[in-house]
TrEMBL record:
CDD domains: Adenylation_DNA_ligase_LigD_LigC, MtLigD_Pol_like, OBF_DNA_ligase_LigD. Its EC number is 6.5.1.1. This is DNA ligase (ATP). InterPro entries: DNA_ligase_ATP-dep_C (IPR012309), DNA_ligase_ATP-dep_cent (IPR012310), LigD_pol_dom (IPR014145), MtLigD_Pol-like (IPR033649), NA-bd_OB-fold (IPR012340), NHEJ_ligase_prk (IPR014143), NHEJ_LigD (IPR052171). The keyword Phosphoprotein does not apply. It comes from the Bacteria. Coiled coil: none annotated. In the C-terminal section; belongs to the ATP-dependent DNA ligase family. The lineage of its organism: Bacteria, Bacillati, Actinomycetota, Actinomycetes, Pseudonocardiales. Keywords: Ligase. Pfam families: DNA_ligase_A_C (PF04679), DNA_ligase_A_M (PF01068), LigD_Prim-Pol (PF21686). The keyword Ligase applies. GO terms for molecular function: ATP binding; DNA ligase (ATP) activity.
Length: 666
């Protein structure tokens, strides 16, 4: 047993987290860079006498699972108590960090958890703790000190056994420049070394426990892979009765054997989850040359290896031969299973070339892809649509992954597109009419025009109705970054229905930010709740915020009248902080409650839509705890990857909008 009763171990510090850099690796003398590690995040807490406790990112005690790490400082550190932040990793035979080995070791540990402690040591899989931050030294907390100072102090902490505990190298921008190298060069090296990517950190940033403040920005390496569908498992909980995940395979590029590559469980549309199992031909046994691990195949139905799909992934674990962090892209009916090869050294080299911004040899500007039951031609996937370098391919990838959550909020609502054919910063234009050349299968609705944008006859606009993944991908390929919809839907016979929700658009005037919007939103929450509505908050993806509530109202004017009454009441009660009038001269230092967004002719940015800003931000639903806790504008800025992570954790925070309530009489 490693713990000592006499040791006073410092308290656990919830780890600071990195935000996505939205595809743009930061560059400049204010940044330092570390490899993004694929292991277990861990807080190493050491008392003055050497008593050591290891705590996971989620507060789980790792001490008994990794006793060899807890023993390193048995004699004390020589500098008193310390708290180290870092990552537990293991290496393959080539010296690359290998997460699969760590997982395999943990599986064995759990299987033997009831055995005596001497039997739960797995020294055949050596682990190492790589420290990248120092949070306490002796009696001195360091959270408010700049990173560069914490790093300098970390370098002075004794490392009695560097094979088990060591410091992760941080490379400064100036150091790279002195070697005539750039952050992109370092990224290419990271790719070649098998790392997950890079994390850029501000040199002067303090440590914010449990937060993603934007001072640490992660730049993961994402790759695509054709795969053969070899098995499937049913969904659980809300996915009961549909597809839960697929088991994947490919041919070994050397032997030609069909090998197991792992599984994929995210990125499917609801329709794919319903319909894919019917396309899979059952078989009695697995089709692989070597049986997959037993723990991977519980509850799996095996299928003939006849269908090909495409996934995106972040890492290929060479030792185990597994794809890591996968997401489904769609079927590839245009490919023969015999053509599908597992990732190889050549593929890794090609990825490193891409990360250095070198175009791969033979890449076509236009490609044909299978999206559900539709074949689409998409083009210029590597074209940057944002100043930060976020490409059209990344836009399509985001919309493909968020589609199961986004599409219900677009269903039967006429969509207005904002297109950026030359990217953000170039010409942009609104498009209400369905674009020329739209496919015949794309649904539209012919509705009376209330303005001058009609192009399909006198007073008529042919709106797009986006209700499936192929339609979403098709408009994304047109560089339609923003999707705007009204607060009403279309019924049978292209009939406009009454509004089914009310929206309050909170727009900060000069001298205010989303922080002031959050304070108004808190008050709105109380008022709407008292009126029997269930309010939901959402960032605009820019500087403002929207508050939605579902409702039942037969009169189309009900929502707008109610929103105006509430907005004017707020303006009367807090005239120094709120205005209900659009007049620019009245908006300085105030939040505009724009009630007019409920006018049937108006549209609002769709939740989960990208915005055409300098950075690729997303209109993001929020919890009310997040609204109440907002004290800085950057707390409520979310990149596409952040939103995908949030959806995986929270689900759809706007799901309650499907259940409207009648407004109480005021």
């Amino acid at each position: 047993m490693v713990r000592k009763a006499s040791g006073r171990v410092p308290g656990w510090v919830e780890p600071m987290l990195a935000k996505s850099d939205a595809g743009r690796l930061r560059s400049g003398p204010e940044w330092v860079y570390e490899y993004k590690l694929d292991g277990y995040r861990c807080c190493l807490r050491i008392a003055a006498d050497g008593t050591t406790v290891l705590t996971s990112r989620n507060g789980i005690d790792f001490t008994d699972e990794f006793p060899e790490l807890a023993e390193v400082y048995e004699g004390g550190t020589g500098v008193g108590a310390v708290v180290l932040d870092g990552e537990i990793v293991t290496y393959d035979e080539h010296g690359r960090v290998e997460f699969a080995l760590l997982q395999e070791r943990r599986g064995r540990y759990r299987a033997h958890a009831a055995a005596p402690k001497r039997e739960t040591r797995f020294d055949d899989v050596a682990v190492r703790f790589l420290a990248f931050d120092l949070l306490r030294e002796g009696d001195t907390p360091l959270l408010h000190r700049p990173l560069v100072e914490r790093r300098e102090r970390l370098a002075e902490i004794p490392m009695p056994d560097p094979y088990r505990v060591a410091v992760l190298r941080a490379v400064g921008f100036d150091e790279l420049a002195a070697d005539r190298r750039t952050p992109q060069d370092l990224l290419a090296t990271a790719a070649a070394d098998g790392a997950e990517g890079l994390v850029a950190k501000l040199r002067d940033a303090s440590y914010s426990p449990g937060k993603r403040p934007g001072a640490w920005l992660k730049h993961p390496l994402v790759r695509t892979q054709d795969v053969i569908l070899c098995g499937w498992r049913p969904g659980r909980n809300r996915l009961t009765g549909s597809l839960g995940g697929l088991l994947l395979g490919a041919h070994d590029p050397t032997t030609g054997d069909l090998v197991y590559l792992g599984d994929v469980g995210t990125g499917f549309s609801e329709r794919e989850r319903r319909e894919l199992p019917a396309r899979l031909q059952q078989r009695a046994t697995h089709p692989f040359a070597v049986a997959p691990p037993r723990e991977d195949v519980r509850g799996v139905s095996w299928v003939e290896p006849e269908l090909v799909g495409e996934v995106v992934y972040r890492q290929f674990t060479r030792g185990a031969g597994r794809l890591r962090h996968t997401a489904w892209r769609g079927l590839r009916d245009d490919l023969d299973p015999a053509e599908v090869a597992a990732p190889s050294t050549a593929a890794r080299s090609a990825q490193a070339r891409v990360e250095r911004d070198e175009p791969p040899v033979g890449t076509a500007a236009r490609v044909t892809v299978q999206v559900e039951s539709r074949r689409l031609t998409i083009s210029n996937l590597d074209k940057p649509l944002y100043p930060c370098g976020f490409t059209k391919g990344e836009v399509i990838h985001y919309y493909s992954r968020i589609a199961p959550i986004l599409l219900p909020h677009l269903e039967n609502r006429p969509v207005t597109l904002i297109r950026y054919p030359d990217g953000v910063g170039g010409e942009q234009f609104y498009e209400k009419n369905a674009p020329n050349g739209k496919p015949d299968w794309l649904r539209t609705a012919h509705l009376p025009s209330t303005g001058s944008r009609s192009g399909r006859g006198p007073g008529v606009i042919e709106y797009l109705l986006l209700d499936d993944l192929p339609g979403l991908v098709w408009v994304a390929n047109l560089a339609a970054l923003e999707l705007h919809v009204p607060q009403w839907a279309v019924g049978g016979g292209d009939r406009r229905l009454a509004p089914d929700r009310v929206v309050f658009d909170l727009d900060p005037g000069p001298g205010t930010t989303i922080v002031e919007c959050a304070r108004v939103a808190e008050h709105l929450h109380d008022v709407l709740t008292a009126d029997g509505l269930g309010p939901v908050a959402c960032t605009s993806g820019g500087k403002g915020m929207q508050i939605y509530a579902a409702l039942h109202a037969d009169d189309p004017a009900t929502a707008a009248a109610y929103a105006k009454t509430v907005a004017e009441r707020f303006a009367a009660e807090s005239p120094d902080a709120v205005t209900a009038k659009m007049t620019k001269a009245l908006r300085t230092g105030k939040v505009l409650i724009d009630w007019s967004q409920n006018n049937p002719a108006k549209t609002t940015i769709t939740p989960y839509s990208l915005r055409g800003r300098e950075q690729p931000t997303v209109a993001t639903p929020l919890t009310w705890d997040e609204v109440r806790a907002c004290r800085h504008a950057d707390q409520l800025v979310f990149a596409p990857e952040d939103v995908l992570d949030r959806v995986e954790h929270h689900g759809d925070l706007l799901a309650r909008l499907a259940h409207g309530a009648a407004l109480r009489a005021r």
